[in-house]
Amino acid sequence: MKRDWFSNIRGDVLAGIVVALALIPEAIAFSIIAGVDPMVGLYASFCIAVIIAFIGGRPGMISAATGAMALLMVPLVKDYGVQYLLAATVLTGIIQLIFGIFKVAKIMKFIPRAVMIGFVNALAILIFMAQVPHFVGISTLTYVFVGVTLLIVYVLPRFFKAIPAPLIALVVLTAAAIWGGMDLRTVGDLGQITQSLPAFLIPDIPLNLETLQIIFPYSIALAIVGLLESLLTSSIVDDMTNTNSNKNKEARGQGIANIVTGFFGGMAGCAMIGQSVINIKSGGRGRLSSLVAGVFLMFLILVLGGLVVQIPMPVLVGIMIMVAIGTFDWSSFSYLRKAPKTDALVMLITVIVVVATHDLSKGVISGVILSAIFFVAKISRLEVRKRQASGDLVFDVKGQLFFASAEGFIKSFDFTVSDQQIVIDFSNAHIWDDSGVGAVDRVVIKYRENNNEVTVKGLDASSKKIIDRLAVYHDANAQLKAH
Fold first, then answer.
1. I need a labelling partner for 3 at 20 to 30 A (CA). Which of 53, 179, 319, 387 fits?
2. Domains of the chain with bracketed CATH
3. DSSP secondary structure string, 390-450?
4. How confident is the model at residue 88 (pLDDT cuts 50, 70, 90)?
5. Helices of type H across 303-379
6. 3-state class percentages of the chain: helix first, strand second, coil last, to nearest 5
7. Reported confidence tier of residue 23, pLDDT bands at 50, 70, 90
8. How far apart (Å, rounded) are the C-alpha atoms in residues 295 and 50?
9. Do 167 and 17 touch, CB atoms closer than 8 A?
């Protein structure tokens, strides 16, 4: 407990301040995407960051309002309004809490490494693409500020590490822009900031079955996308810090955070890989960094709201470009050359789908399904060899017999033989499902029809069990003998 909170106080505080400054424009931008007032995103970021600091399962990870979640909210807000969004946020939290209780984090083991690499790279590309409208084709001065910001964040740490370089860039360049009266786009251009604390409220909606039917599809989608992004981000932070996290606790924490957020006027959120990377790169490691990020965010809104709106967007763009560069897995170019072609294709498809749809869940699901198809194709290669042994015609089966290999198994036999002793040896094979049992049944039926005597041997315990339970042969003259 003490290690999570107080082992890195200075690093966590400074990193939390940097994260808070970077959260403001993103929270406002995500609110605009969702079609709600900027304060809905800012309140969500404050509530979620603070709550997750105490009950999350991954210290040092930042959770707040996110773009992936905002995109899912658009139709709900457009058709029914913000009150229904707040109710959907509460229900999202309840669903996530249930998922956490039932240990849904186990699904992480079904996500292949190729999908993880694709997810990270796609996210880096999306982070960079989101910055393009804020600096391309605006003005020469904008390019200069982005360039100077990148120069500071990359060069300064070589000489001075006491204060995070992104924080120095923010303070120095904001001061220069204000005092120099420079014509640059600012955070204030994204939307209005109201200098007030969030207040408890119950969503103003009818509490009936019709309302549930409206919000449930959105809530289940938000819950799944939020947990998927949070658990993947948690794994990435695990790798960056060489530490472990409690994924089920994180799922429960995300649920509780969203329930509370919905009652305080915020939209649903989840872990943010971009902000989490900023936090880690700035020296944040513990829960204190997440708490400071949330508290300092609200401090900025309440006390320094007038100053915050004057932060130049090119400075924040420069910091986010640094995040995109740091997030991208540059070793994936050599991975494409060295990895099996199927894994390389899975990674590329994951990236393409995420970038094309701006939906992380669709990319990950596409990658997982493609990986599953390739895996099934790989293990469905089953070999049947024919040989003579002591007057018997023996078929040695090698491989996995299941739905994908059943047809090939049947085609491997010559059913023209008659009046022979036939042995089908499964010593080097395993039968997995009803399709496999059905294939064995069909082979035995066909041989029995030509007056052959068939014996199945070499079945391991689980294969014999499924054969005994599902095989259709019970006729006394044509009984499947399993030894």
1. 319
2. 2-330 (no CATH), 344-379 (no CATH), 383-482 (3.30.750.24)
3. TTEEEEEEEEEESTTTHHHHHHTS-TT--S-EEEEEEEEEEE-SHHHHHHHHHHHHHHHHT
4. very high
5. 305-308, 313-327, 332-338, 341-357, 360-379
6. 65, 10, 25
7. confident
8. 7
9. yes
Q: What are the residues whose beta carbons fall under 8 Å from the beta carbon of 303, sequence distance 6 or more?
A: none
Stated pTM of the model: 0.72
The CA–CA distances, whole Å, from 62 to 52, 456, 465 equal 8, 58, 49
Q: At what angle do helices 113-131 and 360-379 cross, to 10 degrees?
A: 160
Q: pLDDT grade, residue 476 (50/70/90)?
A: very low
pLDDT in tens, 392-411: 899 999 999 999 999 999 99
Q: Which residues pair with 186 in a beta bridge?
A: 312
Token digits for 135? 């600096």
Query: What is the C-alpha to C-alpha distance for residues 483 and 478, in angstroms, rounded to an integer?
Result: 15
20 touches 292 (CB < 8 A): yes
Q: Is 241:59 a contact under the CB 8 Å cutoff?
A: no
Token code pair at residue 8: 């890195």
Scanning 242-286, the segments in alpha helix (DSSP H) are 247-263, 273-281
- Record the tokens describing residue 457, joined without a space: 């041997």
